[in-house]
Amino acid sequence: MNRSPMSFAVAIAQRGKGEKAAEIFSECGITIQYIGLGHGTANSEIMDYLGLDEPEKDVVMGVCLTDCVAEAFSRLGDEMGFMGRGTGIAFSIPISSASSDTAERAGLKENYERSSAKVDEKFEMIAVVVGGDMADIAMDSAKAAGARGGTIVRCRDMSPDSERRVFGVTVRQDMEILMLITPQKDKDRIMKAICDTVFTETEQPAVAFSLAIDDVVGLR
Questions:
Q1: Between the CA of residue 81 and those of 57, 89, 125, 203, what are the distances in Å?
Q2: Among 21, 90, 78, residue whose Cα is nearest residue 52
Q3: Which of 62, 120, 134, 154 is at 20 to 30 A from 174, Cα to Cα?
C-alpha cells in the first residue's frame, strides 16, 4: 500500500495523560504538536468498545512524517495501554498537501506540495463543526445512524465573519468539533443523519467532512 509521506496523528487520552502522549510523540519525531481538551460522548457499553472509561479527554495532535507513526502508536500501546480498556484511542490521517515550512519542520527534505498516494480506507474520521450547544444533539443523531461514539473538542471560531462586538469588545463564537471514527461503509449514512439533524434544529447547514485514516489503535 502506497502511503503519503506525511500524516496528521491524533491521540485521545484520559484527562491528565495528554502530556505523556505528547512526550511519546516528541520522542518518536512528531515535533509539530497541539494539545486540547475533549469530552467523550459514548455510553458505558460503547466506551468499553472504544477503550475509554471517562468522559473528559486530552486530545494531542501532531503533524509528522508517516514513518514516525508506527513507533509512536506502538509506544502508546506499550506504555499507556492504548490497546486495553479505559485508556485511549489514536489514529493517523494521510496529509495530501502541506506548506513547505510545515514539511521542513516535520523533517521532510524534498519539496512537498501534494501527494497522490492511495490509502487504506477501512476507517474514516468524520468531523462536524457546530455551535456550542449542538454537539450532543449531533452525536445523538450519529448514534441513531450507527455511530459507536465520539469526542467533542471545544474551540473558538476564528473565521473573519465570526466576530461580533459587545461593549466595544470583540467576541468570537464558541464552537465544538465532534470527531467520530467509523467504518468507511457507514460514513455516508452517519454524515447525512448529522447534517439533517443540525439543519432541522438550526436551519443552518452543518460544517462536516470526512478523512480517510491510514492507521488506528485502541478500537476494540
A1: 15, 10, 22, 43
A2: 90
A3: 62
